[in-house]
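Good day; I would like, with your permission, to put a structural problem before you. What I wish to show you is a protein chain and, alongside it, a tokenised description of its three-dimensional fold. Thank you for your consideration; the sequence and its tokens are set out here:
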Amino acid sequence: LQWVFIRSGKELLTKFPMVAGAEAKMTANCPDDTLRLDVEGQIALLEGELVDVIAKRAVTIAMIKARAKKSEWAKVDEGFESLKKQPKLDDFKKSVDLIQVPAMKAAQAKKNVMAEDRIRKLSGKVLEIAQFHLDEEKVTELKQEMDETKKAELKKEDDDQPKLLIK
């Protein structure tokens, strides 16, 4: 007795026992996996976009920090304006919904619980990555840090200016 496992990528579609030589020909019934494959392709494209956004965001943040060290505050402000224009977590949530919702409805219509679960997992994975890397709290904290640094630097410059004492 041997077990035969039929997979689509990493996903197990079906498994069944087989005795080699017992039958000349066997037919295996596999669930339709086209919904998951379609969603997987769309999610892969979305992940590519997400990687680009994460990289661009990291570069922009690094430039903001470097410019702050050089006291180039106008450039720091430009960096924050650039961050505001970059895609946000909500944009990725909407994109995932545009992929996930129709696919889930199609899976439910076909009563394909396995496809529903796989679609949910694929969508959840990309959202988890987006939530970690596109957390707006990190930008807010950076902005506060830069504002405090700028304020302290301007105060120090003001304190270093010679004072004219009039009596």
